[in-house]
């Protein structure tokens, strides 16, 4: 094939040029995003039911929803959590589930359940979780002093949001911190009492003034007109002028008996930026959009906002595109330094400049053609796929060096230039194909991991397969063509020179080789003993998901565990910010309930998230420690969780599931076990280190008990009492003013005093309109109730989280604890998921090792020689572990990717070394008198022939990665574990390929030969 193609250089060159142009066109259409658009198989149903207890939300809302969702196809797990005024149901599906169809099915079931849910509750929101839901940037909108917050909320909702949504590539714009304007009616109770009126008279007057005719029309000759009542109200002035009639028939304007004004609705949450109240707008991209093209548009739009609306301050924060830019910059750095160092090393070792230029052409050509594979496999350019390309670049340089070195060697031995190109490629073709297949055999099976890890590995596996396949195409066709073109008019001597450095290195190699082979047995034994010694360092490594990235920001999650209002929550956060003023660079906080459509986390009024950005790591550690200490001293009941601010990777990989959770259900009743019974039981719990789950956390509450006998005696209906309580303690909605899509509620506002005073100063009217104060019918008491009601498919449960490093050992003791208490026990958590993932990983790796062995056995046509390659792998892994341990680096996702990179290069070197030994051994056996002589000569010459490509591939790869070690920034922090893995593995791997492979081959071949002779 090579001979055929080299005979037609113009056709081959034009074909490659056309392929490059076609790939560039496809590359421009590829979406660019931070992460692959992975459908996380979860759907969250969010419930918002104001002024409702957790028990009521569970009984009347969440339980019917759970029962309605049980029949969903592919449903794996279902959990719900009811809190005060809010609740959610989290549905988890199998990874094979079509989430688009599941989302539609969940919405259909919610629509069917509408009639069985409370009428006054808004429709539950259905949120589908996707990696594209992670916002790419947050826009802070802060009104200047004196500017109406409600007007800024309308501006953000109706203008800012819509202008951002019009940008190319923007899928959704979400807002938190909105505050709506309402019309507040505050009754003047002494005047009302003097006129013999009640609040009910005000309410009737306002409802009558805002009534509409439901589509009534009249005819006037041949024309038809729709009727509209001219008495409809629109402003507070209209409300003030409404007539109110007393039971005695006396009529006055409403402004005589009540104050009417615009005000802000009672807030349930706030957003703070730099200590000031504001709004935050999150921007989400479309799946097929390019993040690096969207962000300039967003920045341009914000600059226009600053000019158009000077009364409002704008700022962009938490720009997630920095992660993507770091990945792209790392790839560019790898290409630049890889090309420069390959050029330098090839020049040093080969003494000519043409060969490096050939590699300089082949590297970008391979990369560009690889992007065409992305297009056909529907893969976006993201951090995961880019890391796969970076992984394959080392193999690409490796293949290029091997092919060019073999062609040069054939040319040096006296073959013609054409024959050198043909035979040089044909000799290494099968070995290079095997090395690529073995790399894919190690890597591609990881795609079959369940969960997000397997979904992420899909993008990486496709990118690795793409660049390795293209690298073979380039190595077998383009490289010999370029070599023939560059050296066509050059004398043969120009390509035959070896540099002085290489000749010196060759002499040193021969000295060490002869020394080791003088004591073959001891040398091999020492190398074999290094395997367990080096691998044992793996036990000393800390295991993490992602490498620790140097961050200057933190996220403080607070739960005050006190029944405070959203305003009190805001005041506490503002006080914290004021006390820390000047100690941070940037601060923003989401306080109370979040208004984000895509927010699927826990929502409670007494909770707050505080984001802080610092100038340095020292400042971050010092201020954070002082902040936590201060909170613990001043608010001992508060739950404090301080961690590095999560980026998109953290949000994707980190799980909210407890590590090990013990759940129980009361078999006697489908309700939580009361605190009076549960507290003594927990004192006898057999494990010391545990923390309460949500279903056991307590909160203070006030309990009203009504005196029904008195109500009946005084002729008062129970509904009158309920309506009065709603008017006093809730945001009592009288009516809504609807105008061109804008809704303005009219609320009844009572005195803002404690509830005991309200009970004394407000009255119910019995027979003959005799007034009775509310405290005659209501007794109140304080109590502690559960803050949340948690449930799963089987019903309501309560739980504990075990903090022990090996919690599984207590399973028997916990089951014994439940005996006699009529409790069913269940164990769940991330512990079991991790154990299942490890089990799958071990099975997949076993399959990968078998594939690796079968490919090598087919390549060598031998069942023993693949074992030599297999034995080099633990040596390389051990070398990587050693360097990771010496540098204090953990074993994480990036270092694991580095292991795969290193193993691919090591396998490549070992395969080519054995393939060369086999060819030389076959050639020398025909001319040699003894098998031992032919074997030793083949081993010796193969080492000399393969010394240059082995050393060059290792040195170019290591030197190309070294700049990352000394770089700073997010990209370098991500890539540094990968670099340490590769450097450690290749340092040992180079020595292994040079000396361990021939030693192991000698012993295996000698044993095989003796066995053959005996037979």
Automatic annotation (TrEMBL):
Transmembrane segments: 331-350, 357-377, 383-404, 436-458, 464-486, 522-541, 841-860, 867-887, 893-912, 950-972, 978-1004
Record protein name field: Efflux RND transporter permease subunit
Keywords on record: Membrane, Transmembrane, Transmembrane helix
SUPFAM superfamilies in the cross-refs: Multidrug efflux transporter AcrB pore domain, PN1, PN2, PC1 and PC2 subdomains, Multidrug efflux transporter AcrB TolC docking domain, DN and DC subdomains, Multidrug efflux transporter AcrB transmembrane domain
Source taxon at top rank: Bacteria
Protein's UniProt keywords contain Membrane: yes
Pfam families named among the record's database cross-references: ACR_tran
The UniProt record lists the keyword Iron: no
Listed InterPro entries: AcrB_DN_DC_subdom, Acrflvin-R, HMA_dom
């Amino acid at each position: 094939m090579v001979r055929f193609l080299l005979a037609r250089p113009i056709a081959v060159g034009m074909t490659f040029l056309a392929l490059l142009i076609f790939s560039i066109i496809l590359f421009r259409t590829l979406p660019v995003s931070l992460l692959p658009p992975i459908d996380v198989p979860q759907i969250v149903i969010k419930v918002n039911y104001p002024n409702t207890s957790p028990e009521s939300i569970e009984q009347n809302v969440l339980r019917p929803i759970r029962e309605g969702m049980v029949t969903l196809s592919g449903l794996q797990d279902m959990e719900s959590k009811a809190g005060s005024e809010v609740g959610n149901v989290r549905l988890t599906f199998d990874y094979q589930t079509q989430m688009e169809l599941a989302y539609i099915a969940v919405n259909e079931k919610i629509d069917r359940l509408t009639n069985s849910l409370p009428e006054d509750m808004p429709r539950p929101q259905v949120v589908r979780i996707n990696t594209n839901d992670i916002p790419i940037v947050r826009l802070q909108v802060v009104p200047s002093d004196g500017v109406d917050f409600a007007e800024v909320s309308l501006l953000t909702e109706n203008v800012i949001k819509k202008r951002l949504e019009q940008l190319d590539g923007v899928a959704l714009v979400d807002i938190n911190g909105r505050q709506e304007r309402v019309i507040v009616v505050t009754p003047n109770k002494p005047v009302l009492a003097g006129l013999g009126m009640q609040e009910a008279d005000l309410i009737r007057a306002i409802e009558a003034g805002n009534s509409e005719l439901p589509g009534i029309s009249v005819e006037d000759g041949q024309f038809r007109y729709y009727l509209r009542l001219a008495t409809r109200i629109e402003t507070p002035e209209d409300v003030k002028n409404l007539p109110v009639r007393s039971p005695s028939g006396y009529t006055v304007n409403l402004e005589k008996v009540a104050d009417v004004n615009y005000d802000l609705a009672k807030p349930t949450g706030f957003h703070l930026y730099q200590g000031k109240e504001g709004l935050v707008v999150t921007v989400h991209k479309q799946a097929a959009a390019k993040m690096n093209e969207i962000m300039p548009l967003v920045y341009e739009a914000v600059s226009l906002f600053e000019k158009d609306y000077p009364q409002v301050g704008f700022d962009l924060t938490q720009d997630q595109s920095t992660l993507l830019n770091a990945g792209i910059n790392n790839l560019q750095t790898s290409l630049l330094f890889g090309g420069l160092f390959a050029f330098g090393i090839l020049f040093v070792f080969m003494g000519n400049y043409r060969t490096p230029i050939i590699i300089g052409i082949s590297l970008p050509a391979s990369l560009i053609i690889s992007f065409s594979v992305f297009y056909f496999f529907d893969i976006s350019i993201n951090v995961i796929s880019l890391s796969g390309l970076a992984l394959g670049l080392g193999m690409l340089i490796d293949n290029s060096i091997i092919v060019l070195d073999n062609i040069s060697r054939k040319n040096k031995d006296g073959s013609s230039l054409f024959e050198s190109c043909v035979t040089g490629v044909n000799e290494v073709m099968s070995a290079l194909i095997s090395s690529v297949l073995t790399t894919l055999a190690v890597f591609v099976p990881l795609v079959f991991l369940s969960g997000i890890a397997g979904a992420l590995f899909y993008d990486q596996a496709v990118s690795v397969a793409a660049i390795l396949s293209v690298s073979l195409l380039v190595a077998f066709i383009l490289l010999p063509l370029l070599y023939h073109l560059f050296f066509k008019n050059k004398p043969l001597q120009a390509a035959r020179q070896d540099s002085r450095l290489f000749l010196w290195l060759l002499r040193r190699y021969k000295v060490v080789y002869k020394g080791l082979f003088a004591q073959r047995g001891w040398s091999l034994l020492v190398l074999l003993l290094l395997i367990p010694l080096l691998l044992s360092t793996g036990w000393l490594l800390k295991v993490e998901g992602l490498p620790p990235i140097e961050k200057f920001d933190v996220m403080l999650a607070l739960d005050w565990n006190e029944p405070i209002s959203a305003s009190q929550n805001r005041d506490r956060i503002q006080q914290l910010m004021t006390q820390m003023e000047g100690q941070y660079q940037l601060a923003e906080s989401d306080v109370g309930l979040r208004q984000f459509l895509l927010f699927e986390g826990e929502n409670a009024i007494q909770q707050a998230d505080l984001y802080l950005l610092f100038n340095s790591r020292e400042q971050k550690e010092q201020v954070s420690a002082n902040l936590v200490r201060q909170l613990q001293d001043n608010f001992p009941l508060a739950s404090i969780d301080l961690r590095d601010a999560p980026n998109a990777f953290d949000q994707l990989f980190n799980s909210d599931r407890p590590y090990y959770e013990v759940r129980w259900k009361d078999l006697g009743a489908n309700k939580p076990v009361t605190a009076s019974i549960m507290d003594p039981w927990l004192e006898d719990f057999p494990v010391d280190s545990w923390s309460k789950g949500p279903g056991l956390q307590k909160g203070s509450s006030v309990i009203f008990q009504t005196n029904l006998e008195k109500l009946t005696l005084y002729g008062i209906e129970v509904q009158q009492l309920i309506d009065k309580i709603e008017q006093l303690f809730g945001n009592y909605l009288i009516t809504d003013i609807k105008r061109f899509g804008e809704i303005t509620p009219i609320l009844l506002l009572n005195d803002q005093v404690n509830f005991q005073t309200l009970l004394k100063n407000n009255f119910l009217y019995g027979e003959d309109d005799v007034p009775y104060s509310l405290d005659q019918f209501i007794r109140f008491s304080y109590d502690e109730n559960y803050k949340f009601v948690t449930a799963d498919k089987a019903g309501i449960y309560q739980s504990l989280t075990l903090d022990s490093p090996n919690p599984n050992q207590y399973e028997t003791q916990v089951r014994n604890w439940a005996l006699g208490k009529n409790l069913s026990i269940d164990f769940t958590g991330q512990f079991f998921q991790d154990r299942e993932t490890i089990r799958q990983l071990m099975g997949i790796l076993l399959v990968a090792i078998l594939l690796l062995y079968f490919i090598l056995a087919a390549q060598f046509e031998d069942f023993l020689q693949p074992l030599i390659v297999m034995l080099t792998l633990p040596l390389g892994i051990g070398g990587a572990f050693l360097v990771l341990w010496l540098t204090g680096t953990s074993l994480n996702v990036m270092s694991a990717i580095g292991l795969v990179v290193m193993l691919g290069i090591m396998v490549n070197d070992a395969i080519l070394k054995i393939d060369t030994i086999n060819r030389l051994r076959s050639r020398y056996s025909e001319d040699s008198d003894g098998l031992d002589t032919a074997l030793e000569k083949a081993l010796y010459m193969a080492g000399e022939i393969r010394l240059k490509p082995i050393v060059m591939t290792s040195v170019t790869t290591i030197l190309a990665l070294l700049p990352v070690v000394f770089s700073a920034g997010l990209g370098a922090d991500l890539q540094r574990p990968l670099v340490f893995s590769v450097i450690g593995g290749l340092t040992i791997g180079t020595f292994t390929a040079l000396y361990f492979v021939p030693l192991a081959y000698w012993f295996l071949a000698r044993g095989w030969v003796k066995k053959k002779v005996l037979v």
